[in-house]
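can u pls check wat happens w/ NAP
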Amino acid sequence: MIVVTGVSGNLGRVVIEDLLTKLPGDELIAVSRTPASIEAYGTSRNVDVRQGDYEDPASLEKAFGGAEVVLIVSSPDVTPGTRPRQHGNAIAAAKAVGAKRIVYTSAISADTGPGFLADHAATEALLRESGVPFTALRNSFYTDFFVNPAAVSAAIAAGETVAADGGRALNTATILDFGLAASAVLTDEGHENRTYELRGPLWTYDELAAVISEESGSPVAHRAIPLSEAGEGAFVGQLVSDGFFAEPSDDLATLLGRPATGIREVVREALASGRGQR
Ligand SMILES: NC(=O)c1ccc[n+]([C@@H]2O[C@H](COP(=O)([O-])OP(=O)(O)OC[C@H]3O[C@@H](n4cnc5c(N)ncnc54)[C@H](OP(=O)(O)O)[C@@H]3O)[C@@H](O)[C@H]2O)c1
């Protein structure tokens, strides 16, 4: 039995949908914190959907009952101290029900990167201490955050992309690819006590602007701005400028069995969705 948490979210939803193409629904347990999504999902997909809250250990033990492999999708709650506590509860529950492996969605460079990654490093430490074989999926940032129909449409309208990127490359990947890689790790053998750095093909904002131009037929150029002018984009801009995303890795392509999806395909999808103006 495979347990997937966070099924009301972007990533968990992709994982459970892909697992349903490989396994019968009665070999899967979908865990959600929110009763409304349990009702909606359970009835629409004929999957056993159980309620489990990372803040409520008893609910997790009940939800994980029968699990052989548990996917813990990292919590979105970045309040200091919260995620290690929540993930620790989920790890303890998986161990208590006798799970043979835990898969956790971590973040790239979790052990060596900047301080905002400390929750992921702490969770990976809890996994090691648990004694349960685990797989850490160190996901890069989502391409969908940077390249999406609204962003492509705005770039075409303005004739430019604008970011404090320092000319450095990004190794983001799509939520779909991260979800498919997680699904592969949940169903395939040989991933015990492995840590994967899941990164997509490198791209730069100059390349993104060129791709949008080529695919849309509208001229788009990139305008790099200083961090001091980046406003809400300063946090990510600092990371990009520092080269946080500049290192490639083949792990994602290896798990997928094909190259990870690049920005050209994402731009094409954005344009085809009808929101990116031609
Ligand atoms: N790599 C990236 O660029 C990136 C970007 C954003 C987030 N992340 C991280 O990756 C995770 C998955 O991404 P996502 O896009 O799928 O996020 P998402 O759409 O926000 O989904 C988060 C999931 O976590 C569940 N959750 C929240 N609090 C919970 C709790 N106390 N107990 C149990 N479940 C809880 C949510 O359930 P409810 O519906 O009940 O709230 C939801 O299903 C995020 O949570 C975050 O840690 C990564």
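Residues 5-6, 8-12, 32-34, 37, 53-55, 73-77, 86, 105, 139, 141-142, 145 surround NAP (CB under 6 Å).
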